[in-house]
Amino acid sequence: MATWPWPSLCLLAIETVDGEVQQYQPSTFSPDASNVLVIGTEMLAKPNDYGLIFLFREGSVVFWNVEDKTVKRTMQILEPHEIQPYEIALVHWENEEVNYRISDGHSKLHRGEILLNSNLEPDESILEKFAFSNALSLSVKLAIWEVSLDNFVESIQFIPEMLKAGKQVKLSRSEVMQKIGELFALRHRINLSSDLLMTPDFYWDRIHLEQLYDKTCQFLNINRRVKVINEKLQHCTELTDLMRNHLSEKHGLRLEWMIVILISIEVLFELARVIF
User: What gap in Å lies between CA 28 and CA 173, rounded to an integer?
Assistant: First the structure.
């Protein structure tokens, strides 16, 4: 099983190509899981389980027991539906892979391996796979934002060094405001428009699935990573606030000098009128 970041998707169905990918929507999925499309495929990596593809609207794809050729073909099918695509290298680099197997007893995540109950009905098994997939998708989405934040940090890392050396930071007011906008947009996506800070509504009345979801999130260190990324965001916010205050002071100082110059000119005119 593997998860890849993918551009935001607004798909109602997936194209069928040579019979490889077929739509599969279990009736047990409730409206509060409308952010995902479930696809079944007969192109299996192993014969002991059926193949499933979870397509998350936020831009992640999770494959269960799907052969590599079908994985690549599915990605090609999705390509025309890209919205604000990520870099190709980032798509292939930021992924999660977790082994799973069918076993007796309750489904669980044990020592980094997913164990699925062999006695579950197909729809129940799909719901459990969705819980695991949801956490994996969240981890990949967070990884993309971590890269975005690292790129932002790299773009402003020269500022502390220049301030330390006593040099003037050559950034215009519009450039500083642009950086502030980038920072707040990232902060909004992480803390307000995602499920990183709270459990999705889907699990409120599904305690068993919530436990699977939470356990997988713990295994992927999502809470710790969110804490680290928010600490970085706070540091970047302090730095951009410093630059904004610095520019405001420079602007205020410039206005003061303009006022002094205008007053000096007025005094000179008055002196000239009195003398001449």
Answer: 54
How big is the chain, counted in residues?
Answer: 276
- CB-CB neighbours of 46 under 10 Å: 10
Q: How many CA atoms lie within 13 A of 170 on its CB side?
A: 0
Enumerate the H helices of the chain as residue ranges. Answer: 68-78, 88-93, 122-156, 158-164, 173-191, 207-219, 222-275
Give residue for tokens 């410093």. 242
Which residue did the predictor score with more confidence, 102 or 32?
Answer: 102
Query: How many of the other CB atoms lie within 10 Å of CB of 75?
Result: 15
- The answer to whether 46 and 99 have CB atoms below 8 angstroms apart is no
DSSP assignment letter at 14: -
How many CB atoms neighbour CB 16 within 10 A? 13
* Per-residue confidence (pLDDT) for residue 14, from 0 to 100: 43
Convert the pLDDT of each residue in 134-156 to its tens digit.
Answer: 999 888 888 888 888 898 888 88
Which of 8-12, 38-42, 134-138, 225-229 comes out lowest in average pLDDT? 8-12
Distance from C-alpha of 39 to C-alpha of 118, rounded to nearest angstrom: 21
Q: What CA–CA distance (Å, rounded) separates 265 from 177?
A: 35
3-state secondary structure of 19: coil
How distant, in Å, are the alpha carbons of 33, 40, 105, 165 from that of 28? 10, 15, 22, 63
Helix (H) or strand (E) holding 35: none
